[in-house]
Amino acid sequence: MATRRTRPRTGSGNAGDTAVVVLAAGASSRMGRSKPLVEMDGAPLLARVLETARAAGVGPTVLVLGDRAAEVRARLDLNGGIVVENPDYRRGMSTSLRAGVAAVPPGARRVAIVLADQPFVSPGTLRALAARASTGDGAIFVPTYRGVWGNPVMFDLSLSPELASLDGDVGCRGMFPRHGAEIREVPVDDPGILVDFDTPEEIQAVGSALAGGQDLRSVLDAAAAPRIALHADPRDHPVARRLRRGPDVDAVATSLRRDGVPFALATVVRAVRPTSGRPGYKAVIRADGSHVGWVGGACTEHLLISESLRALREQTPRLLRVAPEANERAAPAEGVVERAMVCQSGGTVEIFIEPNLPKPTVLVVGDSPVAASLATLAPVLGFRVVLAAPGAEPHDLPEVDAFVADLKDLPKHLEAGTYAVVASMGKYDEAALAPIARSPVAFVGLVASRKRARAVFAAVREDGVSEAQLARVRAPAGVDISASTPEEIALSVLAEIVRVRRTTASPDHEESVPAARTASVAIDPVCHMEVATTSPLTHVHAGTTYYFCSDGCRRQFARAPAKFGARSARKR
Question: Of 13, 85, 565, 566, which has the fewest Cβ atoms less than 10 A away?
Fold first, then answer.
C-alpha cells in the first residue's frame, strides 16, 4: 500500500534547491555506437543536452557516464558540472539513477532526471518543472505536451531512499505506482519532451529534415506525432498502461486561464449509445486547434475542434449535437449546432462548448479620484485593470491587476485589445496621451473639459501626434449622463467603453486568438470529413490521391470508387 509522505511546503526556491542529473551511461546497443557522441545537426547529442541543462539555470548538473566514459571525456567539454562514472551501468538505468542522485550536492531538495538521448528538450521545460515543484505541492513532476507525458521527470529528494528498491533498466518512473496521488502534470509547449533517439535511422530522419531547411518545431512535432497518437486515449491501446494517467483537463484549463491563454472547454452533457463519449468527459481545445482530453471518436473530434475554434472567434458558447439523424439544412434551436454523425459506429453525443478568453484590459492613467473610481468599477464589468500612476502604492487599490510606476513603460501595455483612459486631471495628460494616441489601442479617452482637451491636443501636436491619431481620442470621454461626482464620471466613461466594445469590430482578442493552423487538408470522399494531407491513410485511383479519416472509409472507397464519385480530392 502506498505510503503518503507529508513534506514541509517550500517557497519559491532558489538555484541551490534543484539539481539536474543527466544519464548518459547506457551501452547504446540499438545505436551501434556511443549514443552521447552521435552528432545531430552538427553537435553531439550529449553536448546539446548539457547545454540545455546549463541554459536552464535551475541548479548544478551531475553527469553520469558508463559505457565508453573515457571517449566521452576526451571529446566533450565537461567542465562546470559534476561527473561520476557508474561501473554497474550494464545492470540497467536504475544503477545510473542511484549513482547520479547520490552525487547531488547537499542542500538540493529536488532533482530533474534528464536523458542523454533527448537533445531537443527546451531549457524552459526544466524551469517550468522547477517552478511548479517549488510550490511544495506534490512530489513527482511530469511534463506534458498535448496531454502526453514526457521527460525529464523531476522528483522530491525525500523519495530518494526508494531508489534502492529499483532494479534493472528502470528509471524514476518505477516510483510512480506508490505515489500516484503526489504526481503533478506540468503542461509545456515543448514537443522535445517526447522525442528521443535510439537508432541510426531516427537520427538520419531528423537530421535530413533539418538539413533540408525544415524548421525545428515542425520536425519535432512530426517526430512526436506517433507517440501522441499512441497515447491519445487509453482505450485505443492494446495493452493496459497502469502507470499512465489521463490528463487532468480541469488543471490544464485552470493553468491556461491563469496565464491568459485563450481556449475552449468542451463537456459532454448527453450521449446515446453507441458512442465512445460519456457525460462528463471533457477536453480543452486551444486556439491553434491542439487539444487535451477526450469527448469521443475521430468523427466527433473533427467537428468539436471546428466548432470550438468558431466559438473562440465569435466569443459565444454553443451546444454541439452530433447525431446520425441531424438535419444540417433545417434551422436548429437557438444556441444549438447540429452536425451529422458519419462514422459507422453511429450514436449521438451532445457537447457544450464554452470559450474562455482573456479579460479585456482597461488602462487607466492617473492618480485622481476619477482614476481610482475607474480602477474600482472596471473589474465589476469583467475588465482587467492596469493603472499607470507614478507614486501610487499597489495596496491602495487591490482591485488593480498591474501597476505602471514609470510613464516610460506605458508602450509595453498599449496593445490592440486595450481600452485606455487618461484621467490625471492635468498632471501628466500630455506625457501619457502622446504615446497612447500613436498606439493601436481599441479606445482612447481623455477625462478633461473641452477647453483643457484643446490645450492638451495642441501640446501633443508639437510632439508629432498627427490629426488622424488625435481624431481617435474621445474628449471629454464618457457617455453624457450629466455626471458630476468622480464615481459618476467613471461610470460614464466605462459605459462608453462598453458601447465601443459591443458595437464595433473590437480587436479584444485578435492577438490572443491566433489564426487556426493552415496545414493542407483534403476531404474524405466517403464521410466528407477534413483530413490532413499528411495522413498515411490514402488510396490512389485513376491518378488521384484520396485521403481518409479512418481505415474503414479507405476500405469502402477502395471497394467501389465510383460509388463515391471518384472525384479529385479537394484541397484548401
Answer: 565
